[in-house]
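PT: before anyone asks, these are the final sequences, not the draft ones from last week. 897 residues across everything. Please model them as a single complex and drop the result in this thread when it's through.
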Amino acid sequence: MKKFQIDRQTLDDLNLLGKYKSNSIFSLFNRTVTKGGEMALERMFLNPLTEAGEINSRKKMFEFFQKEEFIFPVDKEELDVAEQYLTNGEARSYAASMVNSFKRKAMKLIANDNELEMIQNGMNASVSLFVKLESFFKKFDSMAETCPYRTIASKALELLHDKGLAWIYSGEDMTKCSTSTFARYDYRLRYAYSSQINELLGLLYELDLYIAVAKIGRERGFFFAEAVTQDETVVSIKGLYHPTVPNAVSNDLLINHLSNLVFLTGANMAGKSTLMKAFAVTLYLAHMGFPLPVSSMHFTPVDGMYTSINVPDNLNMGYSHFYAEVKRVREVALAVSSGKRLLVIFDELFKGTNVKDAYDATVAVTEAFSKHRRCIYIVSTHIMEAGVTLKERCDNMKFVYLPTLLQGSTPVYTYRLSDGISDDRHGMMIINNERIIETIRKTTEQQRIQ
Amino acid sequence: MIFRIDKQTTDDLGIFGKNNDRSVYGIFNKTITNGGSQVLEEMFRFPLSDDEKINERGQIIRFFQEKEIAFPFKSELFDPAESYLSNTDNRTRLSAYQDNLERKFRSAIGSDTEYKQIARGVASIVEILCVLDDFLENIPDLGPGCPYLTQASAMRDIIYSDALKSCLQENNPTKITYARTAGFDQILRFNCRDTVKQLLNLIYQLDVFIAVAKYSLERNFTYAEAMPEGAGVFEIEGLYHPLLKNAVSNSIKVDHKSNMIFLTGANMAGKSTFMKSFGIAVYLAHMGFPVPAAGMKFSVLNGMYTTINLPDNINKGYSHFYAEVVRVRKVAESIGNSKNLLVIFDELFRGTNVKDAYDATVAVTEAFAANKNCIFIISTHIIEAGETLKERCDNINFINLPTIMDGNVPEYTYRIEKGITSDRHGMIIVKNEGILDILNKDEEISN
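LR: through. Structure below.
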């Protein structure tokens, strides 16, 4: 499997990872019951898939769980006790295990030692866990052949139904069985069957993840994307919005090989960055097969993504903002020219320089990038003149903008994409509404009279 | 008359700051006494707007710098003195009648803390008076024409007053008898309390003068010459930023024919630093303090408004642009209230698209330029706005901070040059980094 190409800057721009950041995309989905589930989720976030087949089968799994509304079959405390017990195998042989058991029994009698009690609690919790899991996984037997979780469920059942573990389901009271029987069971659970049981726990963590992610998807009303295999790149999204922005407005966006570059304009607060982030985050999550903040979507998987949304000034290294941007653009250019299929996002390209330079550089760089038709781009700028020039020169660009409306002197933003290049010139309108020039003239006049 | 400033201005210039090495107040705050530090802060909070007062203070500090006079007091004298004076409770007054056997016994076993505190306060003040007397005696050239004479005479009048004179006869202030301590207590804390306070305040001012003079000598600062308001003089030579290491210095002259300075240059070329240096020098000059320059002459202004790092107010729903518009309006309104202001705008209207920024910069700059009393400094990287303004206004001084390319790394001279910058290094950098080559080469192969 090819590794999805993404770098630190992009992850930071999109705020994808970050367990301790409450507004990161990871923490949006991080609602697993178990620690193991959280770690599995982290692995998925770090390794998006790049093959359409794999993406779609993962997607089917989430879709199934989102529809079925399962509840995670075990409670956290019981699982913690069982996990603690099962993953702490002590004796390497049956005989040693037996000796230890008798020793604990003796200690309990002489010194009221609580070790025996802990072991008993652990075993009881494990038995109860296995019983619950068995009845949970059994449900899938009766489901249709097409149920994507069926194979995993039957694998789990196979592990649970091992002959050596049959005693678990006999209903025997563990507190009443003889010390030697107890020692035998203890040995099986903690040593003889430890690899099977670890496998089973792995399946359980995955189940936790599926249920947790599906629950978020259901609560948020998320939908799934279809990955398609074809040579021409296409990403088509309807009803896209940013998952962590409250009351986000949704937009449709289609990027394909015919128009592989979206040229986005709009005022500063009009929502350009949010839209670009929403697009990139959604495409990233789509590569993980996750439920998405869209109403429908299909896409060809890409090999990676690069964004340049908040390029940090590196004053310590003596770089100006402009130079930092140029370095970043160069890095992306190298990746693009390697022939990979990438999503590239440049927000406010070349804002750190004078207008003439920014205009020239934006036109030249945007045009050169867009010729790589396998890659898709979103470029935003507030040098609208660059858009006008590019419109004449290139036929593979789509020009959209986020409009600003004025309500009195307060700008109001619709956050809805419109076709074309923004011609919002509300700056002067605000200045006129606020009567700035008149105030300056008046006060200057006052001075003259004094 | 007060010199008008606001929080935005002091923040922009870094006048006050948490970190002492990073604020202008911090670098001057080398006083020995706490009271001195407070007096210094007071001076920073209220710059002067009267040329005579400015020059007077400047001359005093300069006098101390030239004579290299050191502050004669130990700092630990002042805390006991202050806390002693702040206790105005009549019941704690010492009385000569209490000098009995009980007191002596308590003194012997050490349980007379109250008395000890009072005695310590009295001793501190007596020592301060003695040291001051000695200090005033030894100031060189303290005759007519000496700028410090007025304050020195005021101090002398106090210490030689009938009430306090007796203190000076105490030879060893650490060993004053109970009876005499009680006598001084009556005088210092009750009869002459206000006079003593006044005297301490003069000493704190002395502390500030000496500390500033010492720092100025270290840094080789200059004393600015203040002219009456409206004289239309404004010249600074060798101006630099006091908080920067190896700062480059620049000279600038403003008069009625060039009261608006239009500054262009690349992002890192030092525009903000120049504007801050200018603002700081003007600020310090209006306090009568030495300035980080080689020479400065100025007509007194009534205030200054800077807009260098304007915070967005997203909470109020303001965009950066709107915040700028609000700020411009505030400045425009202030011009109506006071005549001669210094107004600084860094990167005016950066929070909007180019077309708007251009239009707005031209309109606002042109409107301000009609005012010939105030001094304006406006920076922008919309060079095109400068070209238009050049045609329309005749009182704009166009200056720039150039960028020089060393290979593909831009280097900055930080030296002001005449005219509007014509630096177009952006595309050179893009080309040098070979971005277009990387992208286009691959295209040829695939075709």
